[in-house]
Design brief:
Length: about 140
């Protein structure tokens, strides 16, 4: 276990473990990946991603969950409206360009809207490079 953790394992399960614990750890890791699958990460995003990985998001004072919900801010409303009014799924870059914010800012709001259940996210695979996240109304 020490070697795995020191080698960078994000989590470790000791057998035997209940199946629901594995599912929980996989959800934490999926949320971590969602939060860190952006070109630039600021300190707040890093803290949120690490908290999601540990399953402690929302349990610490001063973390991002104590901020206003993404859909309750002017920018959040603009992000949500742009995706809802689009006839097709949109990427963070497309949303940012449409409403006049950076891709990273749009990504941050989109992630919050996905977490709150107002939007859905899937991966869009292109010819080369990494897949791009696309968003649509839930």
């Amino acid at each position: 276990m020490r070697r795995a953790v020191s080698a960078g394992a994000p989590a470790y399960l000791i057998t035997p473990f209940p199946p629901d614990l594995l599912a929980e750890k996989l959800r934490y890791y999926a949320r971590f990946r969602q939060l860190t699958d952006v070109e630039t990460v600021d300190q707040g995003m890093l803290e949120s991603a690490l908290a999601a990985l540990r399953g402690t998001a929302g349990n610490r004072p001063g973390n991002r969950s104590s901020r206003p919900a993404a859909s309750r801010t002017v920018t959040g409303e603009a992000v949500l409206s742009s995706v809802r009014n689009s006839g097709t799924p949109m990427s963070a870059g497309e949303v940012g360009e449409l409403i006049g914010v950076s891709r990273a800012t749009a990504q941050r709001y989109l992630a919050g809207l996905v977490t709150s259940g107002l939007l859905r996210m899937n991966l869009r695979y292109g010819a080369t490079g990494r897949p791009e996240q696309e968003y649509w109304a839930a």
